[in-house]
Design a protein that fits this description.
This protein has one domain (2-229): Rossmann fold. It is built from seven helices and ten strands. The protein has helices spanning 9-26, 41-54, 80-87, 109-122, 158-164, 183-187, 202-209, and strands at 2-6, 31-34, 62-65, 67-69, 99-100, 127-130, 152-155, 177-180, 192-196, 228-233. It has a seven-stranded parallel β-sheet with strand order 1-10-9-6-2-3-5, with helices on one face. Helix 2 (41-54) links the parallel strand 2 and strand 3. Helix 1 (9-26) packs across helix 2. Bound molecules: 2-amino-2-deoxy-6-O-phosphono-alpha-D-glucopyranose. Residues 35-39, 66-67, 131-133, 139-140, 160, 164 line the site of 2-amino-2-deoxy-6-O-phosphono-alpha-D-glucopyranose.
């Protein structure tokens, strides 16, 4: 794993943008695997700035997102569909028809997982952006998720519900379940770009980089990926120095 330690969030976002820009410039038809959460927002801002200033086009880019809360659809400002439009898609020239995310409102959840897996089989990510949960989760693959997992429905861990409650009016509003790409779907990406900032991520970053490769720390599977770059700020890198 390549590790790039940055002084702060802004430098982390700028370095992440360099990695992303190289993929998009080399292949204007690239398939981007995208993530939500507060961590990649700075990266998305840089992509928007670059689109506005330098005209980098997303018109032939396709995207697949990691995960979505079960029960929320795009009309909810807490849904990840809304997040992606608000933080990226509405500000670049991407065709929304080329963007993909699990349907949080699907009536048949198993059929929705199957649909998304079939889609991912046809859409290998040229790059997959990831954040990391404080318990070492990636996407919504909580500790204990098999490395061979594909898209599935997850019961969110208490720590994840608590961490994510800061985005909701109250903890009671945080959905208890989500759709998520599995670890196998993530590992299938040609390139992985994982970002982490802040001291509450230091333990998870240790597990990602230096800990045992174990299903108890889902992010540790990335040690087995042939092209994985971690861009991390100093606070999150505290335990790997
Ligand atoms: C959520 C998302 C993850 C994300 C994590 C960390 O659980 N499903 O994809 O990496 O939160 O979020 P943040 O970047 O806000 O710390």
């Amino acid at each position: 794993m390549k590790v790039i330690v940055c002084k702060d969030y802004d430098e982390m976002s700028a370095k992440a943008f360099e990695v992303m820009a190289e993929v998009v410039k080399n292949n204007p038809k690239a398939i981007l695997g995208l993530a939500t959460g507060s961590t990649p927002i700075g990266l998305y801002k840089k992509m928007i700035e670059d689109h506005e200033k330098n005209g980098t086009s997303y018109k032939d880019i396709k995207t697949v997102n990691l995960d979505e809360y079960a029960g929320l659809d795009y009309s909810s400002d807490q849904s990840y569909v809304y997040f992606m439009r608000h933080n990226l898609f509405d500000h670049v020239d991407i065709d929304l028809k080329n963007t993909n995310i699990e349907n949080g409102k699907a009536a048949d959840r198993q059929a929705e997982c199957k649909r998304y897996n079939e889609l991912l089989e046809k859409m290998q990510q040229d790059i997959q952006v990831l954040g990391i949960g404080s318990n070492g989760h990636i996407a919504f693959n909580e500790p204990g998720t098999p490395f061979g997992s594909v898209t599935h429905i997850v019961d969110l861990a208490e720590s994840t519900i608590k961490d994510n409650s800061r985005m909701f009016a109250s903890i009671d509003e945080v959905p208890r379940q989500a759709f998520t790409m599995g670890l196998k779907n993530i590992m299938n990406a040609k390139k992985i770009l994982i970002l982490a900032n802040g001291k509450n991520k230091a333990k998870a970053v240790y597990g990602l980089v230096k800990g045992e490769v174990t299903e108890n720390v889902p992010a540790s599977v990335l040690q087995l990926h042939p092209d994985c770059t971690l861009v991390v700020d100093e606070a999150a890198a505290e335990l790997i120095k």
